[in-house]
Amino acid sequence: MWSRQAALVLGVLVVLPGCGTSAAVETAPSRPTVRISLRSTNLLSAFVDLTQFSIQAVTIGDAQKRLEALEEGSIDVTNAAADVTYAAFYGPPSGGAARLQNIRGIALMYRSVVHVLIGPSVNPRNGLRGLRIVLGDPASGNRVLGERLVNSMGVSTSAIRGEFAPYDIAVDKLLKGDVDAVIATVHPPQEPIARALRGGARLLEIDGPEVDRLRRHYPLLRRTLLPRGTYAGQDTPLHTVGVDLLLVCRADLDTTLVYELTRALFEDMPNHVRRQVDLHRAPATVIPLHPGAVRYYREREMRR
User: Fold this and answer.
1) Is CATH 3.40.190.10 what the domain over 112-244 is classified as, yes or no?
2) Looking at the predicted structure, is the pLDDT value of residue 22 above 60?
């Protein structure tokens, strides 16, 4: 009799640890995998640091290619300029075969600002004609913007020597005198721009009738004022133009997942990222919002 009871107790002692291990395995939450391609390294690193997701960073070229990857389903989330996203969704985009209908908005992020830098020895009164100009970054979603900006100033593209280069390389060339000007569309402040200004380069204003001419091609460009002190030694505000940057995702991405991504953007991101996003403007994307994002904004409004 004793031996049967002992055997039963021993059996329970053996089974219980096994059951506990099994339960622990079964109840351990699995982190959803999100494939993200972002041009902003700060934003990408902030997403990677979120412990509730397993982030797979994917490197893809310019914004149009990233939006096409969303459409095809090879990535889940990306960022792109508002004008590029609008053209892709309502298009067809320039050179594209069809509209990209499988993309949806998560949030309007921040504004990328057009910086026109001229070299230390360049006289701005002579205009841009005949200059060697870096028109943009080859990985940018607005490659044509630099050319259109030059045209809006009354200068034909054939009257300049244009090229494309990453902005840090472009600034190196500017300070060495290998190029005369750089057109950079970035979220200020940016270290390459600050380095150029420390080296004697100057920022030109974009204002007047050229803005109206430019907006005929880019209606989503906004007149923008670069506040005084954005860069060291910038003693006065600077008139220029900018375009909003959007965070977008696949239309068929899980609603709960997009809800959690949107919530994390506004509640779990580091302060330096959250400060770049205006919650009141965030839902104002130029394409329809994903239902998961809509749910977050609605619940956030109801909690106010």
Assistant:
1) yes
2) no
Contact 87, 70 (CB under 8 A): no
The pTM assigned to this predicted structure is 0.79
> Closest Cα partner for 118 from 181, 75, 69, 169?
181
Given this model, what pLDDT does residue 27 score? 55
Q: What is the pLDDT of residues 80-97, one digit of tens each?
A: 999 889 989 997 655 556
**CB-based burial, 45-58: b 16+ in 10 Å, e otherwise:** ebbeebeebebeeb
Any idea of the CA torsion for 189, 191, 193, 194, to the nearest 10 degrees?
90
Architecture of domain 33-109+245-302: 3-Layer(aba) Sandwich (3.40)
Q: How far is CA 116 from CA 180, 201, 238, 259, in A?
A: 11, 10, 11, 38
Joined tokens for residue 212: 């109206």
Alpha carbon distance 70, 36 (integer Å): 10
The string of DSSP letters for 19-81 reads HHHHHHHHHSPPPPEEEEE-S-HHHHHHHHT-TTSEEEE---SSHHHHHHHHHHTS-SEEEEE
Q: pLDDT, tens digit, for every residue of 259-271?
A: 999 999 999 988 8
- The conformation of residue 284, written as its DSSP 8-state character, comes to -
Q: What's the CA dihedral at 222, 225, 227, 233 to 10 degrees?
A: 120
Residues in the chain: 304
| Domain spans, the chain | 33-109+245-302, 112-244
What is the distance between the alpha carbons of residues 110 and 246, in angstroms, rounded to a whole number? 8
Give the relative orientation of helices 167-176 and 191-198 as an angle to the nearest 10 degrees: 10
User: How far apart, in whole angstroms, are the C-alpha atoms of residue 276 and residue 262?
Assistant: 14
Q: How many CA atoms lie within 13 A of 55 on its CB side?
A: 18
